[in-house]
Design goal:
single chain, alpha+beta, Nuclear Transport Factor 2, Chain: A, Glucose Permease (Domain IIA), seven-stranded antiparallel beta sheet, six-stranded antiparallel beta sheet, binds zinc ion
Length: 423
């Protein structure tokens, strides 16, 4: 028979164990399949009931190229006074950032005068505009959002953005997808036709309408026949990051690409610079074609050893990274202000901007990766490994990602995959 003191110890231990589990990985996994965020804040008042009988509410969707003026004209509003208010009142500013497809609710009277307007802003607020005794009033208040988990998958035919569009994935998620694999895949040079991906991500909804995307919870990318999977995980310090099934950080000690992948850069790369890539041996570097002014980021933490003009490199930055590694960024149009010899830079920090200084026939970044001062091909070199989840927590991690791994399997079998194949 255990003494009463021992029972107490057992009870305390199991409670603290539950608390730790409840606060760490589950806060991420709670969002599968649905997490509802409710905020007990009042919604803006609706128009007076007695005014309602002469008021016509209608929903008008934002079209590409719409201004608030063209949208209201389509909704039957003919009201210079209202337009004057919308143009000048600071509270109406969200109406000048309209995303196609989003609904705007508009109320008019029989003469086409604006009586009220409702719009869910990108900041997650409800903007309500009312006319009272001839004067307009605008107010914004937070609204209850619910966060849903969305599964999508696609197959690349021409570009990652093309496949993502076909699968109905928002741009913000596509960019984030490239970021979570940034330690393993260079989205400029590595991605090819036939690559497949699946992604589990959050979408924020208000009144059943999507108002924006949230975090990626899990993602899978099959690149040249090799499948990578990453999962969102919150470490003991509360920091969120992406980890492989084995518990290795997906970020890596080095990013594969010094230029962030975006819709602009994705369309800019190929034709012109591929011939140069074939000449890697003579060239000693990899080129990233991108518009002048595109930010260039440090691929790893390090110390700037040189930032200035040097022969064919033009404006160039040399960074000494961990141990024997160093990286070189050439042809820059300009440097970030903090980048000088001796300055510390962090992985992902913007250190300069794409240009065509030195021996360059068009705007591009020339990037070199050196080990013990010998240039190596950054597209193929084995990069130093990244930190892993400690042995004390890796079992917890592996158990926590199981439902997300199932979601990835499910995403792969969705009609979205077939849809993407038409890209
Ligand atoms: Zn080059």
């Amino acid at each position: 028979m255990p003494a009463p003191g021992q029972w107490l110890a057992v009870a305390v231990l199991s409670l603290s164990g539950m608390a730790a589990f409840g606060l760490a990985p589950d806060t991420v996994l709670d969002t599968v399949p649905t997490l509802t965020i409710e905020r007990a804040l009042p919604r803006p008042a609706l128009p007076d009931a007695d005014a309602a009988d002469t008021t016509y509410w209608r929903e008008e969707r934002v079209r590409r190229g719409d201004t608030i003026g063209s949208l209201l004209a389509r909704a039957g509003v003919d009201d210079p006074e209202a337009m004057q208010f919308l143009r000048t009142d600071p509270a109406a500013r969200p109406l000048y950032r309209l995303n196609p497809g989003r609904p705007v609710h508009v109320a008019t009277d029989a003469d086409g005068e604006l009586v009220g307007l409702r719009f869910h802003t990108r900041a997650g607020e409800m903007l309500a505009i009312e006319r009272h005794d001839g004067a307009f009033r605008a107010e914004s208040a937070p609204v209850a959002e619910d966060v849903r988990t969305v599964l999508r998958s696609g197959e690349i035919r021409s570009s990652l953005f093309g496949a993502a569009d076909a699968a109905g994935i928002p741009d913000a998620v596509t960019v984030a997808l490239a970021e979570v694999f940034a330690g393993d895949i260079d989205f400029y040079h590595d991605v090819q036709r036939g690559d497949r991906f699946s992604v589990v991500y959050e979408m924020r909804y208000v009144d059943g309408e999507p108002v924006g995307s949230g975090r990626i919870l899990a993602a899978e990318f099959e690149n040249r026949g090799v499948t990578l999977r990453v999962f969102l995980w919150r470490d003991a310090d509360g920091e969120e990051g992406y980890f492989t099934e084995a518990g290795r950080s997906a970020r890596g000690a080095f990013l594969r690409s010094p230029v962030e992948f975006s819709r602009i850069t994705s369309g800019f790369t190929r034709a012109r610079f591929h011939p140069i890539l074939q000449k890697w041996r003579a060239h000693k570097g990899v080129d990233y074609a991108a518009p002048t002014g595109t930010p260039v980021r440090a691929t790893a933490d390090g110390v700037v050893t040189f930032a200035g003009r040097q022969g064919g490199y033009g404006n160039v930055i040399f960074v000494r990274n961990q141990r024997t590694y160093s990286t070189v960024y050439g042809h820059l149009s300009r440097f970030a202000p903090q980048v000088k010899a001796g300055a510390r830079v962090r992985q992902g920090e913007t250190i300069g901007y794409v240009g065509m200084t030195g021996w360059a026939t068009g705007p591009h970044l020339h990037y070199e990766f050196r080990i013990a001062d010998v240039a190596r091909n950054p597209l193929t070199v084995a990069l130093p490994t990244a930190p892993t989840i400690g042995p004390d927590r890796v079992d917890e991690f592996k158990a926590a990602i199981l439902p997300l791994a199932d979601s990835l399997v499910l995403a792969r079998s969705l009609p979205g995959a077939a849809l993407a194949a038409t890209d």
